[in-house]
Model the fold of this input.
Amino acid sequence: MNKKTFLAGLAMGMALTAGAWAIYPRVHSMLPTPVAEKVTAVVNALRGKEEEVARLDPWDGPAAPGKGAAAKPRKTDEAEKPNKPKQLKPGEPTPYHGKLPTLGAVNIRDAQLDVVMKGLRKPWSMEFMGSDHLLIAEQDGALKRLDLRDHSLMVLDGLPDIPAGKGQLGLLDIALHPDFANNRRIYFSHSIREPGGERYTTALSTGIIDGDELVEVRELLVALPWAQSASNFGGAIAFDEAGFLYFATGDKSARNRSQEPGVLNGKVLRLHDDGRVPADNPFVDRDGYRPELYALGVRNPQGLVFDRQRGELLATEHGPMGGDEVNVIRAGLNYGWPRITYGMNYTAEPIGEGTRAEGLEQPLYYYLPSTAVSPIEVYYGDMFPDWQGHLLVGTLKGMHVSKLDYADGTIRSEQRILKEAKGRVRDIKVAADGSIYVLVQNGGRLLRLHRPTDAPQVATNTVGKRSCAEIYNTVCITCHGNGTPGVPQVGNVEVWDALGARGAETLYANTINGIDAMPARGLCEDCTDAELRRAVNFMLSEAGLTPRKRP
Done:
């Protein structure tokens, strides 16, 4: 049988399998008799119904009157296989059928995502003004106050003239003074145009909210020099617990400026709330360095938050093609751009010296490929108790929130949640009640992630009495169940059989003491030795194995 005959039979067989008998006579009649006979044989074989098809007249279809018995109707899948409930493995959660599968994947099954507001124009950032109001900055140059009780929106007058409408030009981040309740002072970053020219840079300004107006507006700092580029402004703002003001600037697409200590591009700056330079800034007395500098070597930082529990300043910055970063910003350190990076040029050519160099800081976490990270928030609240201290990083290109489990100076896992928001995440803020507000550029939407106030919260099981499945689903699954490269995955019989051959006591000791890239206790600091042994036994059992003695 030649290729054309086989393909013709294959196509007809597929059509007949789908029930398209009406086309059979028409197609069959177009074939020469020898070919038609061979096609019929192929169809019969494909159908696996030789006896039934043989009774059919190929010219008259499946039920030609007086030409053989009609074919018996095929049984439906439901009739053949009744719908039985799935048998769950030990420790396996019941299936989730809600509207937020990315939350269900992290065992949050009662969460709701509500649309608070839509129709905002290019929203960029937001801040809570008490529990009932939000201050929202729109990139095109509008500052708005949202009443969360009746969803009314008020435009605040008094902003300076801000160039916008091209690239990343516009109004950027906003922050409230630590004593905002009394002084009503806010801070905002924005693009600024060179007087009489068409070059730009990032500026930091401040003003006081008086009713529906911003008054006493003035510039605190202009991050010179100017540049032609309308991108990489940075602009993230944060206050620490001592009241110092931090302002992160972008490299303005002139990458080498990030390493030049005499310019303000590509830096993290530290100021007093009135713009003065603190006397204890790390480079105050160093020749050739701007005194405002707190850290250098950043590219385009659009997220900055001070973690009051840990006493750390955390920043997110866009990498080039790949290599977005989360960093802990510390005084006097150099974060490497563009000498080191995990990204590359948009031409796919390498940048700088590689990924590491002496005297240059490594990121706390980096993303390959880039997800275009923008805001960062640290979760502390009662509504999602298992997330205490986790980092919430919004992504633009990725259109999700990257939840980073951060403990003891290490990112233990990353889980991508809120893909259901379906948009570029511009800002994230945790409300006083523990709910999470998400500002989405697409559709100008403000979303609220929350749980019913009467929903029972998951209590932490007593340390030392947790089952093997509970330990696995709480800790081990992060690496052993998520496809982490180089890590034995649960259910891989061949790998676990080889591990089991070393003897159970060896596996227990490796888990408790650490081995290769796995840290001691598998990052479960509160796990008892007995619980870790139970977790190892559980993973062996998932591969159909039992603990063995060392040979």
